[in-house]
Amino acid sequence: MDAWHTFYATAGGASAALIGLLFVGVSIHLDTVVSRRDVRSTARGAFQWLLAILVVSLVALVPHIGPQDLGWTLVGIAAAALLQVGFQTRGIFGADLLLGGAKAVRKVCFRFGVALLLLLVGILFLTGQPSATLWLMAAVLVLLGLAALNSWDLLIDVAEAKRAASGTEEARNEGDLPQLGAR
Questions:
Q1: What's the pLDDT at 182?
Q2: Whole domain around residue 107: which residue ranges?
Q3: Nearest to 156 by CA among 16, 46, 80
Q4: Would 24 be classed as within a structural domain?
Q5: How far apart are CA 172 and CA 177, in angstroms?
Q6: How many domains, the chain?
Q7: Which phi-psi region, left, alpha or beta, contains residue 64 (left: φ > 0; alpha: ψ -120 to 50)?
Q8: What residues of the chain score a pLDDT lower than 50?
Q9: Which residues are CB-contacts of 102 (< 8 A; sequence separation ≥ 6)?
């Protein structure tokens, strides 16, 4: 793992910075994120994958870390991610979805697939496969891409939620105005 030190230091630093930016963005629009279950799920997904990158990077940077230790870390992250996907799936499909069920299904499938990828890479480390390190690098890049996609979706979801809320508010306000020529 020593040869990968720079990669994991960069990935960990980038994910930590992006977690900070995600917290700022969510706190600016906290009312929208909290009031919409699907928007909250998108924010949680971005946070979950950035945190996974950070944890994997920190563990990979531990001096003299063994493949077994890294493998068990990945299996633990994958198990937690699979549980989270299960809870999100249960909660999101009963919710009023801002942009429809197809987007929710896509998000759940991506999250489930990435959790399985992490589980596979963990098993590769546990069984001592020489390709495990390359698979882990690929998984970190996939996690980064998925976190970026979730962050972008979060921006769009917040904008759509605010647009929908202002449209409802405008329609409500129009009903309060007296009509010209009405008797």
A1: 47
A2: 2-161
A3: 46
A4: yes
A5: 9
A6: 1
A7: left
A8: 177, 180-183
A9: none
